[in-house]
Specification:
It is built from 7 helices and 10 strands. By secondary structure, the chain is an alpha+beta fold. The structure holds a DNA duplex.
DNA sequence: AGGTCATCCTGGAAGC
DNA sequence: TGCTTCCAGGATGACC
């Protein structure tokens, strides 16, 4: 669930509640959340340092620390951030206590999320081969075109590939394909320029609209597929029944009436 | 290279 | 009511 807009909401939350605060204690009730580091090293870096800034790239959240490295968090499917003072929330994997008495918890019931340290954000992303974040300055239609160029798979698969573009997940891939009127299995190669433009605009609109309501989907206009993703749902455009297609274990919702296969 | 499938994990929904 | 089964879904890796 946490895709680009959801992670951006979490970043803003962290910006609001963590930046400028000193970390006085680090709780690691489930150290398996750590990737590429061990609890001792992790605590050494975090304890006593101050959070100076936040950053997000695709579905990755970063916090810059006074001590040189960055803290990174990936939320997996069910990861979230919770601020608490008294009773702790459930499913805490990592919790930072701040000098102001607040605790910022990384909760993750299904444990697909992870956290770790990075010396440099760009190097971290480059090492993993992640594509550009479509909401960052400089990403435009030409950049979108360039990223799709040479891809031969189907659109749903290409959009989900974080190495092509970082931040699109299952729900937003469906949303942009729906708004652009493209069947999920449309081949990426050979798309007309006007079609690529439509897809790009659908992506940007979906991200902007979702962020405007801080990802509360029920507050989106009715025309968004995000409001209609369940088994009995109807297409908000033609009121036909949406189809559910399983692709590589991922449920894909689309309207067969106006998302036709094409070149 | 691209597509498919299994894997990780567990709460919550659905089914019986 | 209570137990069992299924589903969700990001990323990775094996396999065809």
């Amino acid at each position: 669930m946490p895709e680009l807009p959801e992670v951006e909401v979490r970043r803003r939350f962290m910006e609001r509640h963590a930046v400028g605060r000193r970390i006085t204690d680090v709780a690691l009730p489930d150290a398996t959340v750590l990737a590429d580091t061990v609890p001792e090293a992790f605590r050494d870096v975090l304890a006593g340092t101050t959070v100076r800034a936040t950053h997000r790239h695709g579905k990755w959240l970063f916090a810059r620390l006074d001590s040189a490295p960055w803290l990174w968090i990936h939320f997996g499917m069910t990861g979230s951030l919770r601020l608490y003072q008294g009773e702790a929330p459930r499913f805490i994997r990592l919790s930072l206590r701040f000098s102001d008495g607040n605790n910022l918890a990384f909760t993750d019931p299904r444990k697909f999320g992870a956290a770790g340290l990075a010396d440099d954000v760009d190097a971290f992303l480059a090492a993993r081969g992640w594509g550009p974040d479509p909401t960052h300055p400089g990403f435009d239609l030409a950049a979108f075109r360039a990223r799709l160029k040479g891809r031969t798979g189907n659109l749903k698969g290409v959009l989900l590939n974080q190495k092509v573009i970082a931040g699109i997940g299952n729900l937003y891939a469906d949303e942009m394909l729906f708004q652009a009127g493209l069947h999920p299995e449309t081949r990426c190669a050979g798309l007309k320029p006007v079609t690529v433009r439509r897809l790009y605009e659908a992506m940007m609109t979906a991200f902007e609209a979702s962020l405007a309501v801080e990802t509360r989907y029920h507050e989106l206009p009715d025309s968004f597929l995000l409001r209609h993703r369940n088994h009995t749902s109807q297409c908000p455009k033609c009121r036909g029944t949406l189809k559910i297609h399983k692709a590589a274990g991922r449920s894909t919702y689309y309207c067969p009436r106006h998302q036709r296969r094409r070149g």
